[in-house]
Amino acid sequence: MLKLSLNLITIIAFTTAIFTSCDKGETAKTKTELITESSWKFDHATSMGFDVSSFIDACIKDNILTFSANGTVTADEGSTKCNSGDPQTQNFTWSFTTNETVLSVSGAIFAGQSGNFTILALTETSLALEGTISTSSGDVTGQIYFIH
Predict the structure, then answer these.
(1) Cα–Cα distance for residue pair 110/72, rounded to 1 Å
(2) For residue 147, which of 133, 130, 128 has the smallest C-alpha distance?
């Protein structure tokens, strides 16, 4: 009986050693890898704690953003354009600033907004940005959420 228990313990120890040695020790992806992994689509927008997605035109909500590791971002108008004369795609430059906590974009990537956006979240499936939006009643802070 003791020999059977020792054999069982040996098998369990050997199996554990095999499975733990197969761990490849994957490292976390960089922010550049996360933002360039796939195209981003609008999910929702908020301001002052309220969902303001219904105030955004459908022709903006279907836009697609594709960030490239070379520092370019392509803004695609999606299936509907707000202005038929606008190009289907436009290319701008992007970069991270302030220890990769701010996304700086040279052109209007969403709803006419460009410049610096504070990165609220950047994961493999979501991107959340905060920026100041100029409206007829003054500047408003808003958050835009994108998904893959």
Answers:
(1) 15
(2) 128
Prediction pTM value? 0.79
Q: Is 100 left (phi over 0), alpha (psi -120 to 50) or beta?
A: left
Over the stretch 9-44, which tens digit does the pLDDT of each residue have? 555 555 555 555 555 667 899 999 999 999 999 999
What is the per-residue pLDDT across 59-108, written as a single tens digit (0 to 9) for each? 999 999 999 999 999 999 999 999 999 999 999 999 999 999 999 999 98
d(CA 90, CA 40): 15
Domain ranges of the chain: 29-147
User: What single-letter amino acid sits at 148?
Assistant: H
29-147 has which fold? Lipocalin (2.40.128)
